[in-house]
Amino acid sequence: MTKVYNIAIDGPAGAGKSTIARAAAKKLNFVYVDTGAMYRAMALHFLRNGISAQDEAAISAAVKNADVTLVYENGVQQVILNGENVSGLIRTEEVGAMASAASVHLSVREKLVELQKGLAARENVIMDGRDIGTCVLPDADLKIYLTASSRVRAERRYLELKEKGQECSLDEIEKDIIKRDYQDMNREHSPLKQAGDAVLLDSSEMTAKEVIDRILLLFEEKKLGERS
Fold first, then answer.
1. Which residues define the annotated binding site?
2. What number of CA atoms fall less than 13 Å from residue 152's CA on the CB side?
């Protein structure tokens, strides 16, 4: 039986996990699993139904009526919510804030983690999120904790939004990032933290290419270690 390889990338909001994981997956010919997109799709479901992130009973009930799946078209991940492709609707600040706030609820996490584990058992994957190395893929072959200062992360997000023609405030974006960091690190279920065997990469002063090259090198070192 061919060995299946899993790479887990965790880290705070805006650290560049999705960009890095997607590019590294392409170079390795692995499947990229954007768990954040799955949580965002669930958050969109809650927003559409007028549900507050603090209403745990309503959240738990709504989860049962939400079907979130990932499909790949020409190698590009598409996020499907109840049969609708919502890939272009889940990248707003409102959805991101709801995803962070709602992910504290166990019912949300259980629903999505089951799908994530199933994908990783079948395919060579790079999966990024908040609790991949600690909870979803505790036996991953390589674990990365990717971070950057809150200001650097805010600046990256600011430029991204400006390029899309959206009006935004750098200071407000940084405040939102700091708030989301606190929520993610202090939630009761599967809080964001660096796994004990994860490699810490601070990308504050690294280019995306430098981060990707470092991850590819670490993975090759892991594989070489297995053979020796």
1. 11-19
2. 13
How many whole angstroms from its chain centre is CA 17? 7
**Beta bridge partner(s), residue 84:** 81
E-strand stretches of 68-196:
68-73, 76-81, 84-85, 125-129, 142-147
Quick check: helix, strand or coil at residue 91?
coil
- For 34, the enclosing helix (H) or strand (E) is strand 31-34
In the three-class reduction of DSSP (H, G, I as helix; E, B as strand; rest coil), residue 5 is classed as coil
Binding residues for ATP are 11-19
Which tokens go with 131? 């609790």
Contacts of 188 (CB under 8 A, 6+ apart): 104, 106
Judged by DSSP in three states, 74 sits in: coil
Query: Using DSSP, how many helices (H) and how many strands (E) does the chain show?
Result: 8, 8
pLDDT single digits (tens) 118-143: 889 988 999 998 899 999 999 999 99
CB atoms within 10 A of CB 219: 20
Q: Listing from the earlier edge strand, what are the strands of the sheet with 6-10?
A: 31-34, 125-129, 6-10, 142-147, 199-202
- pLDDT for position 8: 97
